[in-house]
Amino acid sequence: MRLSPAWTTLVFLLIQGASNACTVKKLGSSTGRFANATLVRLSDFLSAGYKKGVRPVKDWRTSTIVAIDLMVYSILSVDEKNQVLTTYVWYRQSWTDEFLVWNPEDFDEVKQVSIPTANVWVPDILINEFVDVGKSPDIPYVYVTHDGLVRNYKPIQVVTACTLNIYNFPFDVQKCSLTFQSWLHTIDDINITLMRSPEELREDKSVFMNQGEWELLHVLSNYKSFSVDDDDYYAEMKFHVVIRRRPLFYTVNLLLPSIFLMVMDIVGFYLPPDSGERVSFKITLLLGYSVFLIIVSDTLPATAIGTPLIGVYFVVCMALLVISLTETVLIVRLVHKQDLQPPVPHWVKYLVLERAPVLFCIHKKHRLCSRLSSEASDLEHYKENSYGTAQCTLHHTCEIGQRHDREAGLLGLGLPPSRDPTPPVMDNILHEVTAIRHFLEKRDRCREVAKEWLQVGYVLDVLLFRVYLVAMVAYSITLGTLWSVWQVA
């Protein structure tokens, strides 16, 4: 009897189904304690004839799509000197293995199973920036679903090279890249995509440990294909991890002590310049700032290609302290009273004592003028006394001359000269008084010169202090503005 084509096809399908059932039963048959173990039967079924060295596609022209995902768990360390970033990430990847497919109805509705990683094909996706092998835990299993989806989830300690810009320290934001790509397979064999959307990946901070020095801002993703020899193209997925340093520790321990020392340097200008205390005070500040720089030198990040702005700030502060000390030494030299000082030049008197107080509104000039006027009144009083002595001396000299003339007339008449009632010791006294008068006049002239130099020193001290204060305020405002912008950005 001859069957129709439809019946022939039906009979063939029934025979093939029975053959497959027998094959599954044969592959899944076990004896002893594994007789009823579904997972053992499923494992035997999946491993039968499986070739883990072959890319798991039936059509070799089909590309294996590997979906990857990245979640940053912690920032372990940032080594600015060696330009190395150490992070701890949760890495996930999944792909479809066409040879790991089964029917859940044949295995008690088992829809997924864990298989040792060493028994299945795994894509050779690596991180290009790897510079060291981190202490990552070994996860020896992967999950496989009944439709062939393989999920390989594992934590990784990533030690990668990163270009760290420390110029904005301690308000710096670092951007480090993690580039995932297949080291050998081209885009025709292995292609890479994201598990989640770039927006979800960017804002995901659910597992990040937010208690350290660094905080995670966001994670950016970028896919591209590139070619090395313009022949074979490779797929890569680049993750940009953007982190920001918390500056509170460095602000309290680095910036505030430096600011306090500079404020004390400004306060030191209120010490009188004609006293020696200002020089010793500023030398003490300079030594204290040197010790401070030695202490904080280990805290500052150091690289061979750049210096942080805070390091430049410390150097400029040290230079300002040196300039302040130099200015103090010059002013003390001007106001120091010496008997051999030359008179103040007329152009210095005009510029410093007349024009500068008017132009720069130096209100302390009246104090100097009152002091100088009081000392000038004492000098005039002394001169008046000296002038009276001189008149007495001149009157006494005239009397001596008249007596000599009278004695000469008596001698011409042949009469004996009259005796002088003034003793000879008076002549010596008059000579001594005249010498003392000349000495005091010379000393008063030297004191007048010293007072003029003192006034010049006071005016210059006020001018230099204002210039120093303006420079320091401008410098502080500039740095504060820059650091504020960097912190907000």
From TrEMBL:
Domain Neurotransmitter-gated ion-channel ligand-binding: 41-247
Keywords of the record: Cell membrane, Disulfide bond, Glycoprotein, Ion channel, Ion transport, Ligand-gated ion channel, Membrane, Postsynaptic cell membrane, Receptor, Signal, Synapse, Transmembrane, Transmembrane helix, Transport
Superkingdom of the source species: Eukaryota
SUPFAM superfamilies associated with the record: Neurotransmitter-gated ion-channel transmembrane pore, Nicotinic receptor ligand binding domain-like
Catalytic activity: K(+)(in) = K(+)(out); Na(+)(in) = Na(+)(out); Mg(2+)(in) = Mg(2+)(out); Ca(2+)(in) = Ca(2+)(out)
Any single Gene Ontology cellular-component annotation: postsynaptic membrane
Record-linked CDD domains: LGIC_ECD_5-HT3A, LGIC_TM_5-HT3
Every Neurotransmitter-gated ion-channel transmembrane domain range: 254-478
Lineage: Eukaryota, Metazoa, Chordata, Craniata, Vertebrata
Membrane-protein topology: Multi-pass membrane protein
Pfam families listed in its UniProt record: Neur_chan_LBD, Neur_chan_memb
Stated name of the protein: 5-hydroxytryptamine receptor 3A
One GO MF term attached to the UniProt entry: transmembrane signaling receptor activity
Keyword Glycoprotein: yes
Family: Belongs to the ligand-gated ion channel (TC 1.A.9) family. 5-hydroxytryptamine receptor (TC 1.A.9.2) subfamily. HTR3A sub-subfamily.
Places the protein is found: Postsynaptic cell membrane
Sequence intervals crossing the membrane: 248-271, 283-304, 310-332, 463-486
Chief location bin: membrane
InterPro entries the record matches: 5HT3_rcpt, 5HT3_rcpt_A, LGIC_TM_5-HT3, Neur_chan_lig-bd, Neur_chan_lig-bd_sf, Neur_channel, Neuro-gated_channel_TM_sf, Neuro_actylchol_rec
Subunit structure: Forms homopentameric as well as heteropentameric serotonin-activated cation-selective channel complexes with HTR3B or HTR3C or HTR3D or HTR3E. The homomeric complex is functional but exhibits low conductance with modified voltage dependence, and decreased agonist and antagonist affinity. Heteropentameric complexes display properties which resemble that of neuronal serotonin-activated channels in vivo. Interacts with RIC3.
Primary role: Forms serotonin (5-hydroxytryptamine/5-HT3)-activated cation-selective channel complexes, which when activated cause fast, depolarizing responses in neurons.
Region forming the signal peptide: 1-21
